[in-house]
Amino acid sequence: MAIKNVMVIGAGQMGSGIAQVCAQSGYTVFLNDLSADQIERGLKGIKKNLGRAVEKGKLEADAMEETLSRISASTSLEDAAEVDLVIEAAVENIAVKADIFRKLDKIAPAHAILATNTSSLPITEIAAETDRPEKVIGMHFMNPVPVMKLVEIIRGLATADEVYKEIEEMTRVLNKVPVEVNDFPGFVSNRILMPMINEAIYTLYEGVASKEAIDDVMKLGMNHPMGPLTLADFIGLDTCLYIMETLYEGFGDSKYRPCPLLRKYVKAGWLGKKSGRGFYEYQ
Ligand code: CAA
Ligand code: NAD
User: Fold this and answer.
1) 3-class secondary structure, 179
2) 190: annotated active-site residue
3) Domains of the chain by range and CATH?
4) Which one from 119, 129, 166, 198 is the annotated catalytic residue?
5) Surface-to-core class of residue 192, CB atoms within 10 Å of its CB (0-12 exposed, 13-18 middle, 19+ buried)
6) Is 93 part of the annotated catalytic residue set?
7) I want to staple 120 with a disulfide (CB 3.0 to 4.6 A). Which of 19, 176, 243, 265 is the partner?
8) How many Å lie between the centroid of ligand 1 and the Cα of residue 51?
9) What angle do CA 96, 100, 102 make, to 5 degrees?
10) CA of residue 231 to ligand 2 center, whole Å
C-alpha cells in the first residue's frame, strides 16, 4: 500500500508541524482539530515557518503555495474515510486518545494505518481500543517537528511487520531518521529527558538556584541548546506533567514522582510558551 492521503489529528504545535512536513513531502493532509479557530492557529504557524524559509531563500514561493494547497482543514473525524494514514497528535491523555482511536477504527478504510504521536502512553493499550491492533503504531516526532531529525517508532504488541516497514519508509520520505524502540512508558526519549526536566524543577523548588542559573548550568556546562526549564516551557508544562504521571504510574517507582511545583503551575494554567507563561513569561 502506498500512503498518499494523511489525516493529522490535533493542530497544536506538534500536529501543525507534522502536517507541514507531510505536505512538504507531497502527501495530501487533512488537519483536524475540535474547532476551526484551533486549525486556523495551526495553519498560521505553518505559514509563518514556510514564509521564513522563503525569506531566507531556502524555499521557492511556488513550493510554499503548493505545500499549503495540500493541507485542508477538517473539524470532522468523518474525513478519515478518505485517508491511508492517520497521525494522532491530540493531548497527552489516554481517555482522549482511546476515544479518538475507537471512532477512527469505525471511520477509516480497512487498509488505513492508525499512528499516534504520543510522548509516553502505551501503544498496546491504544491499539486495543480498535479491531485492527496490527495497524496501530507509535510515530513519535520531536519538537519543533520541521527541525528535529528523530522519529521514534514504537510497535504495539500486535503491530504487523509490514506496518512497521511502511512507517519506517515514510519517515525517511519525510527526511527524518527512524529509530525503533519498544513499548514501555516514555519509550526512550522521555524516559531519559523528562526525569532530567523534573529534577531541574525540583532544583528550582528546593531553592538550589534561580531558574536562569539552572538553565545556564545546562546550556553552558553541558552544551544543551536550551536549558531544561526553557525546554519544559517549550514542550508545554501540561505535556511534561502527563508524561511524568505516565512514568510514575507505569513503573510504580517514586523516582518518577512529578515535582509539586510542576503540578501547581499546570493547575494555575501556566502551561509554558503556548499559554504565555510558565517558568518564564512570553509575549
Ligand atoms: N518551528 C519551526 N522551525 C523552527 C522553530 C520552530 N518552533 N524554531 C526554530 N526553527 C528553525 C529556524 O527557522 C532555523 O531554521 P534554518 O536553520 O533553516 O534557518 C533553525 O530552526 C534554527 O533556529 P534558530 O537559529 O532561531 O534557533 P536555535 O539555533 O536556537 O535552534 C531549536 C532552535 C532548534 C529549537 C534549538 O533551540 C533546540 O534544538 N532546542 C531543543 C529542542 C529539543 O530538545 N526538542 C525535543 C523536545 S522533547 C520532544 O519533542 C519529545 C516529547 O515527547 C516531549
Ligand atoms: P498542544 O496542546 O499544542 O495541541 C494539542 C491540540 O489537540 C490542541 O489544538 C487541541 O485542541 C487538540 N485536541 C484535543 N483534543 C482533541 C480531539 N479530541 N480531537 C482533535 N483535536 C483535539 O499539544 P502538542 O504539544 O501539540 O502535543 C500533542 C501530542 O504530541 C501529545 O500527545 C504530546 O504528548 C505529543 N508530543 C508533544 C511534544 C512536545 O514537545 N510538545 C513532542 C512530541 C510529542
Assistant:
1) strand
2) yes
3) 5-182 (3.40.50.720), 190-272 (1.10.1040.10)
4) 119
5) exposed
6) no
7) 243
8) 16
9) 115
10) 16
